[in-house]
Amino acid sequence: MNSAQMLLAAPEAWVLIMACVIMIVDLFLREERRGIIHMLAMMTVIFAAIITMRADYLVDGVQAVTAFKGSFIRDPMGDVLKVFSFVIMGLIFTYSKYYLRNFNMFRADFFTLSLFALLGVMLLISANSMLMIYLGLELISLSVYALVAFDRESGRGSEAAMKYFVLGSMASGMLLYGMSMIYGATGSLLLPDIAEAIRTQGTDDILLVFGLVFVVVGIAFKFGVVPFHMWIPDVYEGAPPAVTLFISSVPKLAAFAMAYRFLSSGLGDLHVHWQGMLASLAVLSIILGNLAAIMQTNIKRMLAYSTISHMGFVMLGLLPGTAFGFGASMYYVIVYGLMSVAAFGMVILLSTRGVEAENLEDFKGLNQRNPFYAAIMGLVMFSMAGVPPMVGFFAKLMVLKAVIEAGMMWLAIVAVVLAVIGAFYYLRVIKYMYFDEAEDETTITAPVDFGAALTLNGLMILGLGIFSSSLIAICMTSFGL
Amino acid sequence: MMNGTMNGFLLSILIWLPILGAVVVVGAGEHRPSMAKGLALLISSVTFLLGLPLFFSFDTSTAAMQFVELRPWIETFNIQYYLGVDGFSAPLILLTLFFGVLVVIAGWRSIEKSVNQYMAAFLVMEGLMIGVFSALDGLLFYVFFEAMLIPMFLVIGIWGGPRRVYATIKFFLYTFLGSVFMLIGLIYLYLQSGTWDILAWHEMPLGFTAQKWLFLGFLAAFAVKIPMFPVHTWLPDAHVEAPTGGSVILAAIMLKIGGYGFIRFSLPITPDASAALDWLVIGLSLIAVVYIGFVALAQQDMKKLIAYSSISHMGFVTLGLFVAFGIYRNTGGVSGAALGVEGAMVQMVSHGFISGALFLTVGVLYDRVHSRMIKDYGGVANTMPWFAIFAVFFLMANSGLPGTSGFVGEFMVILSAFQANFWFAFLAALTLILGAAYSLWLAKRVIFGAVVNHEVENLQDINAREALVLGVLAVAILFVGLWPQPLVDMMQASVDHLLQHIIQSKVL
Is the ipTM of this complex over 0.85? Predict the structure, then answer.
């Protein structure tokens, strides 16, 4: 192990160190100076982004570098995903500070646990062996289990954490089971070696296909696609919105990386087997997510089902197994992360001191109470519905193109018809905000940093749509297009 | 050419000036309505004046695209920011610019809630509609086409009548559903050709089966928009609930986008499928003309009546476009078909003026009485003589009185339809009776007769602002009716080009 290899993992090391520093610093802080913790956390993600973007390993046309005996990989795709994880994390910290203060939960544990989860996300993104995948996955999961139950007084929070823990452990178990089969069939934990072994011994190994099934289950659980979606609505609803912010965004980026590394780098030759699996997962998610979301009256549950349908679209991008498809999926998942934090940021904004905004009715008359924030929520909703020129449309466009290119026209038709049905519940939010009279006429105000973050977030959703070429190009070049 | 460098950006200016202006108008704030109105009027007037070169510097001798702008937008996919106008789009853009100013004036007094947002929504809509008419890149077209729904959705939903939520969501979902099929078609075309350039798609050979599916995809989008029977049901709801300005834009411009779509996409990209399936479009058009004409006769609500009359009149547009194939089969030439396509275009412009004027007329009454029901009126002529003159004139134009623009378009289409099939012309000509029946009967019940109630007795006649709006429209209707030549000249070259193009098979 030389130091150059260590440097490849510098962002990870930095986040780990800062998570520990924050934990220790908190012990010496008086209650009223807790703000420092937030500043430290923000500094962590900002510097992590800077370190990641330096990317000086990319010399002489090198496309990827591995470290730690090949189990850790740095490549442009991973860097892009990490940088966007940091951007989203910065937004999350800004939104959640406001919430945590309002609800008397401003403790350092939140930031420490979040940073550990972020570290897990980074490891998962850079994982090149099954061991590293499992390590990253469990680091995310364990931190999030604790975060979901962060509000100790909340019965719903504890219930949600318990459910998530039980289901999550089961999924981890299945994934491990699948990994052990693949290890048994190929004799290696490293994804490139697995790919090599499959290439030499052929794909007809029943053990390998069984292993694949369990791995797909693990991935599907992480994405939360049907039929492994049961935890999503309950966890979204039960967890404090500050935590839901995180669950709904950053881990999805990691889940995409995991799916890509596992399915393409490792099991790429089994494409014929996993394509059908992903297709059924995608169709079921898009159908169930969109239909169930219509029936929700709780905004968090509605957004939960909307996540399920969006993750179905991400699956659509994965299943052709082409570089373009992966690029489209990556674009979709990044865009979704940005939209999702904005939506939950709005939920936090509407939560007044001690009362969480939960019902769609809480959005009533928002246009009268604060036209600016109503407009931002409007952008987010139209974006999620896939209406141009918002960025959500371009995400859907890329995925549809990947699917049609792969000759699966019927999937594209199912997807767009359900997207239209899905548009209904996003429009309903707009209807509450714009067409209904406010019951509570008080104007809504937010602290400056919160407002600035939300504005930036909203502008990203519009701006990345109108000027969509840069982000699309970044995603596509990550896959050599 | 008046000014070469300026013309290179003209379309972009027309699109983005109102949209960016809308941001300023919103910024005027809730509490300064007169400032918002003043700004909106200024921006829309400036846009209108800037757009005049589209008429005066327009080269009528060529079918090629003019005022072209081309720069890369999303390079990874070869998507371009590609704008340009020809004889089909230029008149429609001018119509849009014209109504952009009129709706601001029309909404001057009648809107009280969130005036700044109302004005901004109309400015954004104006920019996006000009974008639709000038986009020559398939995806750019789709982006404008869909984005346009957002401001309209909000306009109906915020400032609309009692059932506005139902109406606006129905409007949005209908249009959205239609257009996603078009999106799949566009992606397919891109994958086949490697470009989103609409003009390149015109030249691209395509198998018949592919053409057929593409044609149906386009039909789904444009039939909803125009709207054609049987997907027209959103229109009466949307019109009835929309505020006057919303109805005007919806009828005068948005419906035209459906007709324009047929001209820009369906006919030239899938000519063989259009020829094979022309019976479908013609059949639906004739149903619209005749059946919807009868439906209009039975309406109790003035706005609903005009909405149905719009559907019926738009039937002429699709009829005029699609009889071309029948004429070519009968005569082996396209000279007769040119009349039909030109008639369809004139009908679009004329219907823009007339339906806009009629909705404004109803708006004048609604502002005073707050009812749209025919039974609440009667004898309006006694208390509002000036208003009555305009209203009767517009209704006459609606029924196709010679000398008004309503006559020209319908007459051209009917003449052309004769050469395809006698019965097409016969059924289409029924509209002259039906249109006269529902329009004049409406005039009789609302305008003439004895004063029926107190409300009518206390009506104030139109003020100078309203007279200005209605007067300008009346002049426009008369102008197109008496001297349609400039309008026809503008599109002549493009029509000939289109017809020469669509009679050639694209099947390899």
Answer: yes
